[in-house]
UniProtKB/TrEMBL annotation:
This is LytTR family two component transcriptional regulator. InterPro entries: Bact_response_regulator, CheY-like_superfamily, LytTR_DNA-bd_dom, Sig_transdc_resp-reg_receiver. Residues 2-115 form the Response regulatory domain. GO terms for biological process: phosphorelay signal transduction system. GO terms for molecular function: DNA binding. Residues 133-237 form the HTH LytTR-type domain. It holds the Pfam family Response_reg. It comes from the Bacteria. The modification 4-aspartylphosphate is found at residue 54. Keywords: Phosphoprotein.
């Protein structure tokens, strides 16, 4: 899962990031945000799965921040030094409410719950293995043959579809929404917070922290560390 850490205290942000790297290797921290406004921009940019969110912060608290990002499908784990917000957190459908200093076991349990919640939301809808997909554009709808899609690239709240003929289509959906639409198609895989690729166009994998792939077009795209093993497993099943 891809995550943001939002906390106005630097040592808390960095400490949590270290714990996640050590105990929760399936979580990739995309950014550490010192305030809610920075976090809102990061949410639009990265479209994460999970937010570790402090509550008491200057200018805008954690609850107010959530009111401004209701359109995003996020799992929330509150991290705070104050226990009086627990009821409010439950009402906000938070995955968990962790008191600082965060303990290793509680963190692992919270991340496991978030992972399970994400899997439950990811159940595919509609008929399997659709060959075409209808997508909203600025001026209407476009029907695309999925076999022609090489990769999809996030551009803030939009997604650009890169096609085999060299054309590209700008679509009015986030990459997260596109990923949900393609869940039933084993040819597509989200290798990075900014990219979904058609595995049939992958020609080569280069080792590294996460590594990189080479597409049939010659383009290199990074693979996130958190997605690396799942990606390699998928390639072996092709």
């Amino acid at each position: 899962m891809q995550a943001l850490i939002v906390d106005d205290e630097r040592h808390c942000r960095e400490g949590l990031a270290i714990m996640l790297a050590k105990y929760c290797p399936g979580v990739e921290v995309l950014a550490q945000c010192p305030d809610a406004r920075t976090a809102l921009k990061a949410i639009g940019k990265y479209q994460p799965d999970l937010i570790f969110l402090d509550i008491e912060m200057p200018v805008m608290n954690g609850f107010d921040m959530l009111e401004r990002c209701k359109e995003y499908d996020l799992e929330i784990i509150f991290t705070t030094a104050y226990n009086e917000y627990a009821i409010q957190a439950i009402r906000r459908s938070a995955i968990d409410y962790l008191l600082k200093p965060v303990s290793k076991n509680e963190l692992i349990e919270a991340v496991n719950r978030a992972t399970e919640a994400r899997k439950n939301k990811a159940l595919p809808e509609g008929p399997p293995l659709r060959s075409r997909i209808a997508l909203p554009t600025i001026d209407g709808l476009i029907l695309l043959d999925l076999k022609d899609v090489i990769y999809c690239e996030a551009e803030n709240n939009y997604t650009r579809f890169h096609l085999s003929g060299g054309d590209s289509v700008y679509v009015s959906k986030t990459l997260r929404k596109v990923e949900d639409l393609l869940l039933d198609n084993p040819d597509f895989f989200r290798i990075h917070h900014s990219f979904i690729v058609n595995l049939k166009y992958v020609q080569r994998y280069f080792r590294g922290d996460g590594g990189e792939i080479n597409l049939a077009t010659g383009l290199r795209i990074p693979v996130s560390r958190a997605k690396k093993q799942e990606f390699l497993d998928r390639l072996e099943r092709l």
